[in-house]
Every structure is written in structure tokens, then in C-alpha cells.
């Protein structure tokens, strides 16, 4: 059993409608792809813009 949409996508849904049965090969392929995406995720390159000091309330 595997989650159709899982924690890698930020979903914590363990309901029956979010589960499916996969063979070992497909499960390993899906899980490996998700783990690789998380491991290689890059933070944003730019800092978010800050408010001008004169505009802070």
C-alpha cells in the first residue's frame, strides 16, 4: 500500500481514497522519485522584499 498523494506533497491523508496498491518495483520507483525531489529541493534564491523602514507601522 502506498499513498497517492503523500507527505512529500505536504499532505497527511491516510484515508482509503488516498491509498493504492503498488507492486514493489513501482513503489520503489515512486518513493525514490519523491525522496530525490525532497533531497534536491533548493531554497529560494532571493530574500523576500522587506518593507521600507519609513513604512513600518
In short:
The protein has one helix at residues 24-39, and strands spanning 2-3, 19-20.
What would the keywords be for this entry?
single chain, 57 residues, alpha+beta, 1 helix, 2 strands, 28% helix, 7% strand, HNH endonuclease
Question: Major β-sheet, in short?
Answer: 2 strands, antiparallel
Mean pLDDT, rounded to whole units? 84
pLDDT < 50 stretches: none
- Specify the helix fraction band: 25-40%
Overview of the structural elements:
The protein has 1 helix and 2 strands. It is of the alpha+beta class. The chain has a domain at 1-35. It has a two-stranded antiparallel sheet. The radius of gyration is 19 Å and the shape is elongated.
What topology emerges from the helices and strands here?
Elements: E1 2-3, E2 19-20, H1 24-39
Antiparallel strand pairs: 1-2
